[in-house]
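From the shared-data thread, chain only:
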Amino acid sequence: MRDCDTIAPVNVNPKGRPRNLVIVIGDQLDSDSAGFDGFDAEQDAVEWVELPNNLGMFQHADGGLMASKPYVATGKYIERMSNYCAGCGYGPGKRTGPSACPFTIHYWDFLLRHEKRLAKNQRMAMQLKHLARFKQADRLAIREHAGQIRHQCLSQ
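Structure, as C-alpha cells:
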C-alpha cells in the first residue's frame, strides 16, 4: 500500500515529481514550499509561465483570472488518469472513513472551505450541486479527517 497521507504534506519538494501531481496536491502547499525552482525543464520560463499558470491553477491564487476553475481532483480522477493508485489500500471513491482516499478527502474539504466563493463560478456548478447533497455529518467528517491529515503532515 502506498502512503498517500504523506503525498500532500506542506514541505514537498516536487523536483522529480510529475507536474500534474504537484498541481493536484497544490491546495495543500503554500507558494514557498511548492518549490518552483525544482523544475529543471523550461528553467527560463519559471517566472512567466510556471508561477502564474501553476500557482494560479493549483492554489486558485488569482481568483480565476487565468484558470477559470481550481485545479483540484479526487482520488477517482487520479485513478482514472494514471496508474498511481495501483495497489493502494485506500478507496479512491471514498470520502469518509478509515479507507477514504486522502486526495478525495482533500478535494471535498477544499470545496467545503471555499463553497461560497466557488458558487459564483459556473464551471463549479456540478461539483457544488453534488456537495449540496452531503449530509452535515459527512461534511463534518471530511473537514475533521482533512484536518487530521494536515496536522499529521505538519508534525512530521
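Residues 36 and 47 are 9 Å apart (CA to CA).
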